[in-house]
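Chain A, query sequence.
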Amino acid sequence: MNLNPNIVNKIASFIKIAINQTEKLQDDILELRKKEAAEEINQERYELALKKTADALYNADFLTDEHEKRVFLRKSAEDPIY
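Chain A, predicted structure.
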């Protein structure tokens, strides 16, 4: 079975392009995963900081009960400016 050299070259070219695109997409996915992981870590740090702040306010009697503490945590999680 003889294949036309032009067809072989076109197939090789297609395969090379497909491999390059696949590698690019894999790199894009990796970068996206890194970004998502960093955002998740930042969110966890923010939530921990909020809890520590709420505990400090509660211990300083600024927040007088657990309900106020929960409200503070909820509002702070919704709006960082709060």
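The longest helix spans residues 5-59. The chain is about 85% helix and 0% strand.
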